[in-house]
Amino acid sequence: MAGPLPLGDPAPADGRLPADLRIDPDGPFSAYLHVPFCRVRCGYCDFNTYTASELRGARQDTYADTLIQEIALARDVLAERGPLRPLSTVFFGGGTPTLLPAGDLGRMLGAVIGAFGIAEGAEVTVEANPDTVTAEVAEELAAAGVTRMSIGMQSAVPHVLAALDRTHRPENVRTAVEAARAAGLAVSVDLIYGAPGESLEDWRSSLTTAIGLEPDHISAYALIIEDGTKLARQIRRGEVPAPDDDLQADMYELADGLLGEAGFDWYEVSNWARRPADHGGGDQRSRHNMAYWRGTDWWGFGPGAHSHVAGLRWWNVKHPAAYAQRLAAGDSPAAATERPDAEAAQLERILLRSRMSEGMPLDAIASDARTRVAGLIADGLVDAGPALRGTLVLTLRGRLLADAVVRALTD
């Protein structure tokens, strides 16, 4: 289970949006559908997920019906504010969405498309644990309208998977990729680097294995130790070593080099997509995640899910049982809301947009902060060429020190 929800203002029981909220009727709109169930809890994970022993009365077999109730509520709330926008992207995350029957995921997808419509060529992604993907599951998801599968590989090395408490069999990653491919789905694989006991050569093995699967997209995230997790407690007790910053930097540089040689371009600090020229011209970047990084609108469905519409943020109650109880009573599951002020919104904009290869316009940065860009170029953190054309783009060194760049532009 994740840590406590952030503080905020009370959310209205009926879920209505503030009267003064100005929604762009032509802006993109996305949906995130959270499936909070896992067979086991990974030691590093602080997501809002629950194993069978933690459900306290919540039921997996009725979860789809419960979430569909929130979809109906969202449609009514947004219909009051003007024309409904078709979905540009849909993302099933978790947890392990594929712990639910593919038919349940299909019903949830059908409900959200039925409520809002879906744009032509929209991206629909399902996260999956390799051990839960069969040819039949992939085919049923594709038939329901899923276009993309994101497979949680994490590592190809057994002792690294064990350090992360991952229970899937490494060989099942290939089986899952092949099943998704055969069903016509685009494929992404997710990796984590910096686990206790992982060497640079272990990481090289995972990268070369992932590349050999020939996915369309690869995510590679540095292991972060979150308070309250099993791994944080193990490190505090001295049972396993904390991640080594220098080793993680070496691992990142290795990933960027190997992925670049294999035909992948970075488009966000932790994400690489196969070059369009190498894939028939198709754009394999995660359009759903780009919606987050660009700050467009989305509604998050499910316990603990966060939403963002026209600068208003809100988040649902965390536990699946409390979530179901709210909706059964005809109430919104939202726990609280917030409207970041101009300073907080600017900090977030810089934090997210600066991480993308498309960069951010220099004129979006406060004038006093723009004077520091020359120093960032001199330090090798910002690419001089795009900066001269009016866009801030991080160098490889800048990606390793992205937080320092953000501090320089916002302090």
Automatic annotation (TrEMBL):
Pfam families: Radical_SAM
Compartment list: Cytoplasm
Matches recorded under InterPro entries: Aldolase_TIM, Coproporphyrinogen-III_oxidase, Elp3/MiaA/NifB-like_rSAM, HemW-like, rSAM, rSAM_sf
Radical SAM core domain segment(s): 23-265
Cross-referenced CDD domains: Radical_SAM
Chief location: cytoplasm
Cross-referenced PROSITE patterns: RADICAL_SAM (PS51918)
Domain of life, source organism: Bacteria
Annotated GO MF terms: 4 iron, 4 sulfur cluster binding; coproporphyrinogen oxidase activity; metal ion binding
Keywords: 4Fe-4S, Chaperone, Cytoplasm, Heme, Iron, Iron-sulfur, Metal-binding, Oxidoreductase, S-adenosyl-L-methionine
GO-annotated cellular components: cytoplasm
GO biological process, alphabetically ordered: porphyrin-containing compound biosynthetic process
Task performed by this protein: Probably acts as a heme chaperone, transferring heme to an unknown acceptor. Binds one molecule of heme per monomer, possibly covalently. Binds 1 [4Fe-4S] cluster. The cluster is coordinated with 3 cysteines and an exchangeable S-adenosyl-L-methionine.
Family statement drawn from the similarity comment of this UniProt entry: Belongs to the anaerobic coproporphyrinogen-III oxidase family. HemW subfamily.
Protein name as annotated: Heme chaperone HemW
